[in-house]
Write the structure tokens for this entry.
Amino acid sequence: MDIPRLIIADERRTGFIPPAVLIISAMQQMGYPVRIFVSEPDEELIQILQLVCSQPVTVIDPFLCGSQKTLKILFQHAAQKDAINFIVAPLGERQREDTLTVSSDTLEIARALGCGIVPVLYGDTSATLTARSVEHIVSQCNGIAGGGASILAILYMSVFNPREYQLLEIEQGRKTPLIGLGYIPKYLERESVSLLHLLLEDRGRQVALSLKTAAAQLIALVDQVEWATFATLSRIDEKFEAVSDSNRRQLPSLTVGIYDHPAFCLNGDNATQLFSYLGCSVEKFSELDEKKLHNADALYIPHGMGFLAAEMLIGSKEKSNVLKNLFLSRKPIFVNGGAAPLFGSRFALSQDRSYEGLSLFDFESKYNFNMSQRESLKYHINAFTRGIFFDRGGKARGYSVPYLSISSQDSLEKGLWSCIDAESLKETSQTGWEIGYGAVSHVVLELWSCIEAVVHWLTLRKR
């Protein structure tokens, strides 16, 4: 199997949009077909890429996938043979001005996919310090992906002018012989935008236009970046060792309906890819049409900013009754992540503004966008009792988002699944509420980490 693929490992700076967005947008504008993956559930990055490139993004996080085999299966199923499959990953963390520790997840993906890496490194310090950083990065990466050198070439970000780049090329060439792909000028940097703003139609469109314009400016700079070389690097070792698996096309007779809303795409298209992998037909729905929903064998409401779709889902008694009846009809339903608050008793957007939910479950939720914690927390999910989704002892992986919290006064409404912090290995919360054949989780469950449970849930009505 041939799959052109390349990891863009970019250095991230707080307050700025990752450089990989400009690179991929530019290549797409030049006519290169692209397919986009990201290495972690960075929701702002996912949404920016989806807005700018007008295509869904797939998340191949090593921890969330649960195993290297599952990660490879997801990649080979979602990848496109006639496109450059870009994996956008963080390069790592700087320890000093001249040293940078490469992300272990980025290295793990390179190992799993046999994939070369192109680092995108900030070059706005002295040429000597930047060249030392490159040397340090290469020493950590070479040989990990099999074949030739894992670091295939290098691109710089925020170099001030051509003279500075020339000095940088000379200094880097003395220490580490690498293909230089050019640099992105500092004036093309773009500041980051909050996730909420990205999900608002007008604001999101403005951000996408700004980034597309910056990419077009980069293209217009003749010989600024070696675009043809960039594309060629993805085909240096395009042979991909395919993984066979018995789950493929296991459920060809089922139809899964997926709720389609611009604010409900923060986990990428992983769920859609899984249902497709299992052989299910996938139908998107944006309105609660009982006749259309009746034809689906199961319904999935993906992770997103639930309150932005509250009017569409529970904005009237008629709409609320449609959802309630679906749960009571014993149709398999799964509500993931940020959509969960709509199904509790109340959800709040601030201290003094709260709204009624469907009250199918006795928990209250709060969306808080003034939080100090910015990163998601990853969890091992363990079921401590048998339910409609997991058997007792069932396991999965997932993550919580920093802007959502859930509380319950009733100990019976704490959830059926324990959430064990991936780093401390301590239980920090619970999730997983069930009624009829429906399950709700405020933690974003990665369905690829529990394929057997998904198959069990999808076939409940067939038993």
Notes: The chain is about 30% helix and 25% strand.
